[in-house]
Amino acid sequence: MNKCMITALAALALFFAGGVLAPRTSMQALAQDVVFEKGSDAPGAGPKGAKAQDREKRRGARFAECDKDKDGMLSKDEFAACYPRKAAKFDEIDANKDGNVTKEEMKAYRTVMQKERMAKFDAKFAECDKDKDGTLSKEEFAACFPKRADKFDAIDANKDGKVTKEEMKTARKPKSEKQ
User: Fold this and answer.
1) In Å, how far are 131, 136, 153 from 145, measured between CA atoms?
2) In the chain, at which residue ranges do the beta strands (DSSP E only) sit?
């Protein structure tokens, strides 16, 4: 029974991860799945909304500052000048391929990237969890994350000798977002 359940869960995880990790031919198809309307599932909605709203305000202010011609979009040159580390991703972020990037396209791109990071994290955690108990022992953690092995005790928030996904996610958050 236990092996069947684990196999079924692994198959489900692979099924869902396949859609997220599959090679992309167009960000447009992915971006169309992400809808941002004020007051809905936009970043900033929900219990931790205030910090996310502040982050969105800062992003909006930076976008406006980068938009030198004030047309509500960033040309490739405006984008490269303001976001040099992301300049190579311009064509991927430009979901509708009009040669400009809007705030909405940037939000959609961030959401897609976050989903991909989470899928990779979930896959890595599952790979590391050799006994499949949903946690990482100190040995499993050290084997999988040797450069972070010394951080195990700090990550193990409840001090039970095991690290959960949630404890790892919380440990990665900035201090200002930890509860």
Assistant:
1) 16, 11, 13
2) 74-75, 100-101, 136-137, 162-163
Residue 136 DSSP symbol: E
Q: Identify the CA nearest to 96 among candidates 85, 108, 86.
A: 108
b/e per residue, 109-143, with b = 16+ CB within 10 A? bebbeebeeebeeeeebbebbeeeeebbbeebbbe
C-alpha dihedral (149, 150, 152, 157), degrees to nearest 10: -160
Which backbone phi and psi does 161 adopt, to 5 degrees?
Answer: 80, 10
Sign of CA dihedral 134, 135, 137, 142: positive
CA distance 70 to 42: 24
Asked whether the beta carbons of 83 and 66 are under 8 A apart, the reply is yes
Give the pLDDT confidence of 95-142 residue by residue, as tens digits.
999 999 999 999 999 999 999 999 999 999 999 999 999 999 999 999
- Residue type for position 84: P
What whole-number distance in Å separates Cα of residue 132 and Cα of residue 52?
34
| pLDDT for res 176 | 57
59-64: list long-range contacts, CB under 8 Å, 24+ apart: 59/103, 59/106, 60/103, 63/103, 63/106
DSSP lists the bridge partners of residue 100 as 75
Please choose, from the candidates 114, 116, 112, 122, the residue with its C-alpha nearest in 3D space to the C-alpha of residue 21: 116
